[in-house]
Amino acid sequence: MKNCTCVKDILVSSARIDKRVTELAEQITNDYKDTSPLIVGVLKGAWIFMADLLRKVELDVDVDFICVSSYGCGTSSSGRITLLKDITTDMIGRDIIVVEDIIDSGTTLLYLKEMLLERGAASVNIATLLSKPSRRVVDIDVKYVGFEVPDEFVVGYGMDFKERFRTLQDICILKEEVYKK
Ligand code: PRP
After folding, report:
1. pLDDT tens, position by position, for the chain (181 residues)?
2. Is 128's C-beta closer than 6 angstroms to any atom of ligand 1?
3. Is 52 among the catalytic positions?
4. Pocket mutation for ligand 1, best pick of 69, 71, 84, 139 (most atoms within 8 Å of C-beta)
5. 7-174 fold
6. Residue 48 Cβ contacting ligand 1 at under 6 Å
């Protein structure tokens, strides 16, 4: 494993991720059959999950990306969402699925969901690879969840610490001394 000295443990192996992503893709394919949803990936963390998920979804989809930041280089949400890159696809009347790597406090996804609905989306559902229910501070409905995970600092499969570790194949728990020093 790359950067393995910084990692305490594997939380979710790449084999388990693959199996669960297949299940989520089947669910989305079934729920959205005969429609052409707009899939909005939230950069940067969602890019690997989104690429794997959409190659298993058997639908005609449109794809776009949005980039927001609420954490910056810190380890807890600032609560302030900064829109760094907007989507360019016309969303009026569209059924949208927002794809995220992780939902923690829920602030980011609530902000995005409300923004997309205000702009005229017909519906907005959320697909997240990970959810940390114990960290939630806002009430938000998440339709597709890969794994519910404990409150550990996770990296890999798109997720980072200070832009490192995104390309690890497994979802790993970072050693405390790495992010607390
Ligand atoms: C992470 C993650 C979500 C957000 C979730 O983004 O990708 O967008 O935090 O946290 P919340 O539920 O508390 O709002 P981050 O700001 O770390 O950027 P990144 O996607 O570029 O890694």
Report:
1. 665 789 999 999 999 999 999 999 999 999 999 899 999 999 999 999 999 999 999 999 999 999 998 765 455 555 678 899 999 999 999 999 999 999 999 999 999 999 999 999 999 999 999 999 999 999 999 999 999 999 999 999 999 999 999 999 999 999 999 888 7
2. no
3. no
4. 71
5. Rossmann fold (3.40.50)
6. no
